[in-house]
Amino acid sequence: MENFDFVEMKVPAKPEYVGVVRLSISGIANRMGFSYEEIEDLKVAISEAMTNATTHAYKKSEEGDVTVGFGIYENRLEVMVADHGGSFNLSNVKEGIGPYHQSESIENLREGGFGLFLIEALMDKVEIKNDYGVIVLMTKYLYANEVGLDDDQISTTQ
Amino acid sequence: MNINLDVEVVEEDQTITLTLRGEIDAYTAPKLKDALLPLTKKPGAEVIVDLEQINYMDSTGLGVFISALKSTKEYDSELKLIQLQDRVRRLFEITSLDSIITIESTVRGGN
């Protein structure tokens, strides 16, 4: 089986913790060797997933946690964001995903519809499971590093 | 590093400049909305939002600017975003919102 490190965090489902999780992914991605641009993409993607989890999941009851998992592989970072609130309506969220179109009138423009669209635009692979609560699983590959791997190995002291 | 948001408002006749510092996300977006929306409800006002010191923004920020834009149409005011960092500008481009929101076109770092 492929070797990987796994980091798990459990935070309260409150907007205060979106920024905290964003700082965590920034640290992990930096250590893995992602570029500045890629780290910024990861920060937006995980924040969007966290925002969904904190605003949709626990509407009825205030209590709740979001579990975030980072699968750190040699060639990719897998990020999992899971809420167990169960009240998140995936089909509602999926409706109206996409960029703004000129034909739409500004009055009808949605104010909260770009989150999932941005996740899909910024990550390489996105899966959403809606069995018990919602789990967003997203992957970003370390493309740049695959190219430079040989260079790195030369300078590595054994 | 500042993961919070500071908002500073300067009013000069009909021109209102909102200078933002920090990050716009699910936690800080309501603060921005509370500061920005009332300003757009003054007929004839030109509301300028300076984003030079915003180093992070996500869809929650886009949502606030969409609300503000709608409000300007309703109250006959204007909204303009200036000095966007490349990353922030990119979000408006990916979502095509740059076609309806007035964004200063000069590239940041030119001065």
Automatic annotation (TrEMBL), chain A:
<comment type="function">
    <text>Negative regulator of sigma-B activity. Phosphorylates and inactivates its specific antagonist protein, RsbV. Upon phosphorylation of RsbV, RsbW is released and binds to sigma-B, thereby blocking its ability to form an RNA polymerase holoenzyme (E-sigma-B).</text>
</comment>
<keyword id="KW-0723">Serine/threonine-protein kinase</keyword>
<dbReference type="GO" id="GO:0004674">
    <property type="term" value="F:protein serine/threonine kinase activity"/>
</dbReference>
<dbReference type="InterPro" id="IPR003594">
    <property type="entry name" value="HATPase_dom"/>
</dbReference>
<dbReference type="GO" id="GO:0016989">
    <property type="term" value="F:sigma factor antagonist activity"/>
</dbReference>
<protein>
    <recommendedName>
        <fullName>Serine-protein kinase RsbW</fullName>
        <ecNumber>2.7.11.1</ecNumber>
    </recommendedName>
</protein>
<dbReference type="InterPro" id="IPR010193">
    <property type="entry name" value="RsbW"/>
</dbReference>
<feature type="domain" description="Histidine kinase/HSP90-like ATPase">
    <location>
        <begin position="11"/>
        <end position="140"/>
    </location>
</feature>
<dbReference type="InterPro" id="IPR036890">
    <property type="entry name" value="HATPase_C_sf"/>
</dbReference>
<comment type="similarity">
    <text>Belongs to the anti-sigma-factor family.</text>
</comment>
<dbReference type="Pfam" id="PF13581">
    <property type="entry name" value="HATPase_c_2"/>
</dbReference>
<keyword id="KW-0067">ATP-binding</keyword>
<dbReference type="GO" id="GO:0005524">
    <property type="term" value="F:ATP binding"/>
</dbReference>
<dbReference type="InterPro" id="IPR050267">
    <property type="entry name" value="Anti-sigma-factor_SerPK"/>
</dbReference>
<keyword id="KW-0808">Transferase</keyword>
<keyword id="KW-0418">Kinase</keyword>
<keyword id="KW-0547">Nucleotide-binding</keyword>
From TrEMBL, chain B:
<dbReference type="Pfam" id="PF01740">
    <property type="entry name" value="STAS"/>
</dbReference>
<dbReference type="GO" id="GO:0043856">
    <property type="term" value="F:anti-sigma factor antagonist activity"/>
</dbReference>
<dbReference type="InterPro" id="IPR003658">
    <property type="entry name" value="Anti-sigma_ant"/>
</dbReference>
<dbReference type="InterPro" id="IPR002645">
    <property type="entry name" value="STAS_dom"/>
</dbReference>
<protein>
    <recommendedName>
        <fullName>Anti-sigma factor antagonist</fullName>
    </recommendedName>
</protein>
<dbReference type="InterPro" id="IPR036513">
    <property type="entry name" value="STAS_dom_sf"/>
</dbReference>
<feature type="domain" description="STAS">
    <location>
        <begin position="5"/>
        <end position="111"/>
    </location>
</feature>
<keyword id="KW-0597">Phosphoprotein</keyword>
<comment type="function">
    <text>Positive regulator of sigma-B activity. Non-phosphorylated RsbV binds to RsbW, preventing its association with sigma-B. When phosphorylated, releases RsbW, which is then free to complex with and inactivate sigma-B.</text>
</comment>
<comment type="similarity">
    <text>Belongs to the anti-sigma-factor antagonist family.</text>
</comment>
